[in-house]
Amino acid sequence: MKLSNLDLNLLVSLDVLLEERSVTRAAARLGLSQPALSGALARLRRHFDDPLLVRSGNTSELSPLAQALRLRTSHALNEVERVFASEAVFDPATSQRTFTVQASDYAMAVIGPRVAQVLAERAPEVMLRFEAHPATLAGDPADWLRGVDGMILPRGFVFDVPSIALFTDEWVCVADEDNDAVGDALTMTDVAEMPWVLTYHGPTRFLSAVRQLEQLGIEPRVQAVVESFLVLPLYIVGTRRLGLVQRHLADILAARGGLRVLPCPWDVVPVVETLWWHPLHTRDLGHAWLRSVLVETTRSLARQD
């Protein structure tokens, strides 16, 4: 079907319908009447020759095609918005652009406030949206990055797309400040015998420091796995557990009290926090400005290393 025969408003309707799985809720979000959105759903069903939303008791489920369309639709909308937000000259002082960067909560905590301060001073109408990075990082990195302005991840997880190193951090261990099982320094015996709480402990997302331990023949006694660095203290304070965090974040967490920060008793590979982006964004003037801001604001972190 030719693009000229399509109503791009249907793309917006499709995106919200697939997210809400309800005509009533989707209509409320879009500010449309239910009959109007029901009509849009009927047109979408005719176009795809598929029900898209399938009744299951009192709720609706996505058809197999709708499940496949969900991520594509979101990416397509982002690209359409990017086209219409394009500027021949990017002026941060007047731009109303939104930049979306995926990152861990560690990067959001350490980098985000610095960048937000610069934007408030130099680009008051620009919005920076931080999102959690995908649960899995399988497949072509260009596919993950197509619908966002970038992703902040350590080196070693992404390849074959443009990138720039922001700063280097190091892994450290954290323990409850009153944990009497920990002496002045951790030993490899402590590491092997004490319980741990770890983040992103799985086949496709893992901590490089933990992978190094496994290569040394030590399998940590993992009692809990969380998808957040910021909640680690809740699983450590008042317990005998150990945790692994990055030095810059450890300093922030320890300042709140309750934690001791200890060097790892094995040689840990440095964490090189890096911005990765889709090649399509390289010549984008606004994107180039964002990259320069990220590099500038992380220089102070590099000086602390």
UniProtKB/TrEMBL annotation:
Pfam families: HTH_1 (PF00126), LysR_substrate (PF03466). It comes from the Bacteria. Residues 6-63 form the HTH lysR-type domain. GO terms for molecular function: DNA binding; DNA-binding transcription factor activity. The keyword Transcription applies. Signal peptide: none annotated. InterPro entries: LysR-type_TF, LysR_HTH_N, LysR_subst-bd, WH-like_DNA-bd_sf, WH_DNA-bd_sf. PROSITE patterns: HTH_LYSR (PS50931). Keywords: DNA-binding, Transcription, Transcription regulation. The keyword Lipoprotein does not apply. PANTHER family: HTH-TYPE TRANSCRIPTIONAL REGULATOR LEUO-RELATED (PTHR30118), TRANSCRIPTIONAL REGULATORY PROTEIN (PTHR30118:SF15). Belongs to the LysR transcriptional regulatory family. This is DNA-binding transcriptional regulator, LysR family.
